[in-house]
Design a protein that fits this description.
- The protein is mostly helical.
- It has one domain.
- It is built from seven helices and no strands.
- The chain is globular.
- The protein starts with a helix and ends with a helix.
- The relative contact order is 0.21.
């Protein structure tokens, strides 16, 4: 797309900004409470939130997956993606911040709080999480910057594949995340 690199970097910046806000709330507002003990209210509350969040994610993604199977996969560009092709980079920052997988980010925040580490270690953990979460999203940017003349064809092929399979991939990943959240929450409640 025109100015695609700038928009892609803006998207990544929005994604990281959303993680930074959640991390700041967890580290500077919720940090210091005893999330490590399984017998305390905050720990039970965090585990219950994990279970509820996992159930919501699992049920919603399973229902959407069941409905998805009735539709045929399409390589046609969705209207919202086509609109993004014609927008400025500020909107890409906003879209990046809203496209974040909030359930996974909140689960990471809960795990970091449960670890009962220092503020500096919690900040480092959020930085590592942010970098890990952005790795696959930034791959096309790295490709476009490293080999701009050869990347157009490769990126077009990736785009077609993602458009054809994105819904299935996303829903399966969300179901797995939901099951993991439920399992960890139950484990933490009974341990």
């Amino acid at each position: 797309m025109p100015a695609g690199r700038r928009r892609a970097i803006a998207f990544v910046a929005g994604w990281l900004l959303a993680i930074a806000v959640i991390g700041a709330i967890a580290v500077f507002v919720l940090h210091g409470q005893d999330f490590s003990s399984h017998k305390t209210t905050p720990s039970r509350t965090a585990s219950a939130v994990e279970i509820v969040l996992g159930c919501v994610v699992l049920i919603a993604s399973a229902r959407a997956f069941r409905r998805r199977s009735r539709r045929t996969a399409s390589v046609e560009t969705p209207k919202w993606v086509a609109r993004l092709d014609r927008t400025n980079w500020l909107l890409a920052v906003l879209v990046g911040s809203f496209m974040l997988t909030y359930s996974l980010t909140v689960a990471a925040a809960i795990e970091i709080l449960k670890a009962h580490v220092s503020t500096a270690d919690a900040v480092v953990a959020f930085i590592v999480f942010a970098l890990a979460s952005i790795t696959t999203i930034s791959a096309p940017i790295v490709l476009a910057l490293a080999a701009p003349e050869r990347s157009a064809e490769r990126l077009a092929a990736w785009r077609r594949w993602l458009l054809r399979n994105s819904r299935t991939i996303g829903l399966v990943a969300l179901m797995v995340v939901g099951v993991i959240l439920i399992g960890r929450g139950i484990h933490d409640l009974v341990a």
